[in-house]
């Protein structure tokens, strides 16, 4: 697995950490997005239907925010299941990156923001070890997404 820099032990502990937060994928995915929109309001501009929402409470109740939160967590979950198979991992990351780069034109810095918020939430809910186990995975994901963006001419 040439592209992946995680050992088998790191993969296992990352999966264990991820499972804890993925159990409540919709709620936790929503919490991550709400925090992103609240702390980085410019990220809302990409989501036309979230633009008018200012209160965190309103966002939390929104079906669209909840739906996208769940979608983000499902995508990461697919990646986490394929951390030990770089071909399968890239098969998930590549189309996702291309779509965000070319169709949605999302600034790639937002992937780092969202990953950092996931790590924060892991630390708050499950402690520093949980966060530490997952940190390498978020770096891996962000690195690959950034590479795809470069290939798409960003």
UniProtKB/TrEMBL annotation:
Ranges for domain Globin: 5-150
Classification via SUPFAM superfamilies: Globin-like (SSF46458)
Enzyme Commission number(s) of this protein: 1.15.1.1
Gene3D superfamilies assigned: Globins
Role, per record: Involved in oxygen transport from the lung to the various peripheral tissues.
The protein's name in its UniProt record: superoxide dismutase
PROSITE patterns: GLOBIN
Keywords of the record: Heme, Iron, Metal-binding, Oxygen transport, Transport
GO molecular function, one term: superoxide dismutase activity
Source lineage: Eukaryota, Metazoa, Chordata, Craniata, Vertebrata
Catalytic activity: 2 superoxide + 2 H(+) = H2O2 + O2; Fe(III)-heme b-[protein] + nitric oxide + H2O = Fe(II)-heme b-[protein] + nitrite + 2 H(+); Fe(II)-heme b-[protein] + nitric oxide + O2 = Fe(III)-heme b-[protein] + nitrate; H2O2 + AH2 = A + 2 H2O
InterPro entries, per the entry: Globin, Globin-like_sf, Globin/Proto, Globin_lamprey/hagfish
Family: Belongs to the globin family.
